[in-house]
Specification:
The protein is an alpha/beta fold. It is built from 14 helices and eight strands. Strands 6-5-4-3-2-1-7-8 form an eight-stranded mixed beta sheet, sandwiched between helices.
C-alpha cells in the first residue's frame, strides 16, 4: 500500500515509476537489430541487486522490466523476481522463450509477475534473419506447453517487433496463435537511435508505407480488444509517419538500471549516469540533461515503449477513465498488467 502511494507521488511529481533492468547482456539469440548481446556483461550478484531494489523502492518505483540480453539465462532470475515483489515493485519478465520450461512458467504464474515473450514471426526463414538462430520450433513448442497454465498472477503476452520482413498475414497468424494459447498480443516498431541498444540493419529498416497495413490492422483490432494498446498504436503510427513527438519518458517516467548496477536515463544513453536520490537531487539531474533529451527528441526521436508508453497513457487519462469498464473486462482476459 505504502509503495503504491510512493508511485502516485512520483506520477504527480513527474519522476520515474518504471525501471528497465538489463539483468544481463548475455543472450542465446543473435538478433541483428540489437547491439546488447555484442558486449561484455558485468552482472551484479544477487545481494547487490537487493540493495539496488531497496533504493528503487525508496525512490518510488512501482514497476520493473526484467530484460537483457536474455533474463532467463540467470539462474537466480526467480529470486530476483521475488525480491522485487517483496518490495512492492511489480516485475515483467521479457524473454525470447527459448528457456521457458513448464516448471519455470508455473512458478511465474504463481507470482504477481507479468510475462512477455518476444517473437516476431511464424516463418522459420524470417525467424532466422530476425533472431539469428534457427530455433523457432523450440519457442513455439514452449509456448504451447505453458498455455495450459490458466491461473496467472499477472499479464501474459506475446510481442513482435515489426521490421521490413514483417507482413500482414504473418502478423495475423501470430495474433491468432497468441490468442489461441491464452496470450495477449502486441506489436512495436523497429527502433534505431544511437546504436547503443538498437542497431541499424538495412534489411530490416522500413518506411511507414511498408508497414502501414500492419499498424492500422492492429489499431483497429485493439480498439475492440485492448483499448490501452490502441492508444499507443496511434502514437506508433504518428511516429512512423514522421510527425513531431512530445518529450519522451526518459528520466520523467522511467530510467535504466544496467547489469552492473549503474543507472542511466534510457537504453540508448547508457553513457550518462544518474543517482535516484531525493526529490531535489533528481530534479537537478533532470534539468542538467534536459538539453540532450530535447535535442534527441527533436532530431532522432524513438518509440521504445518504455520511453513513451507511460506518457501516452497518462496524457490520455480522461479517455482511460471514461473507458474504464471495458479496460477492466479486457484485463480479465489476459491478466492485469498493473
Amino acid at each position: 500500500m505504502f509503495q503504491k502511494l510512493r508511485v502516485i507521488k512520483n506520477v504527480l511529481l513527474k519522476r520515474p515509476i518504471l525501471t528497465i533492468f538489463d539483468v544481463t547482456r548475455l543472450c542465446n539469440q543473435r538478433c541483428p537489430m540489437c547491439n546488447i548481446w555484442r558486449e561484455k556483461s558485468d552482472d551484479m550478484p544477487t545481494n547487490a541487486i537487493l540493495e539496488k531494489i531497496k533504493e528503487l523502492k525508496k525512490f518510488g518505483v512501482g514497476y520493473v522490466y526484467l530484460q537483457g540480453g536474455e533474463p532467463t539465462i540467470r539462474k537466480d532470475i526467480l529470486q530476483i523476481t521475488d525480491m522485487f515483489i517483496n518490495h512492492g515493485i511489480k516485475p515483467t519478465i521479457i524473454t525470447n522463450g527459448l528457456l521457458l520450461t513448464n516448471e519455470f512458467a508455473e512458478k511465474i504464474a504463481a507470482r504477481k509477475c507479468n510475462l512477455s515473450i518476444s517473437i516476431d514471426t511464424l516463418k522459420p526463414d524470417v525467424f532466422v534473419k530476425t533472431r539469428g538462430v534457427d530455433k523457432l520450433p523450440i519457442v513455439l513448442e514452449n509456448i504451447k506447453n505453458i498455455s495450459g497454465i490458466k491461473k496467472r498472477g499477472g499479464n501474459w503476452s506475446m510481442t513482435s517487433t515489426i521490421t521490413k520482413l514483417s507482413d500482414l498475414e504473418d502478423i495475423k497468424a501470430l495474433r491468432e496463435f497468441a490468442h489461441a494459447h491464452g496470450f495477449m498480443y502486441a506489436i512495436r516498431p523497429y527502433i534505431f537511435v544511437t546504436g547503443t541498444a538498437g542497431r541499424e540493419e538495412k534489411e530490416l529498416f522500413y518506411t511507414y508505407a511498408d508497414v502501414a497495413n500492419i499498424f492500422e490492422f492492429m489499431t483497429e483490432k485493439a480498439e475492440k480488444e485492448n483499448y490501452l494498446a490502441s492508444l499507443i498504436y496511434k502514437k506508433h503510427i504518428a511516429y512512423l509517419q514522421g510527425k513531431p513527438m512530445k518529450p519522451c519518458d526518459a528520466m520523467k517516467r522511467s530510467f535504466l538500471l544496467k547489469e552492473n548496477g549503474k543507472i542511466s536515463p534510457c537504453i540508448e544513453y547508457t553513457n550518462i549516469e544518474l543517482e535516484p536520490g531525493g526529490f531535489f537531487k533528481f530534479r537537478k539531474q533532470q534539468k542538467q540533461h534536459a538539453e540532450i533529451f530535447g535535442k534527441c527528441n527533436k532530431e532522432s526521436p524513438c518509440f521504445y515503449n518504455d520511453a513513451r508508453a507511460i506518457g501516452v497513457l497518462i496524457n490520455n487519462a480522461p479517455r482511460i477513465f471514461l473507458n474504464a469498464p471495458r479496460i477492466v473486462k479486457q484485463m480479465l482476459v489476459y491478466g492485469n498488467f498493473f
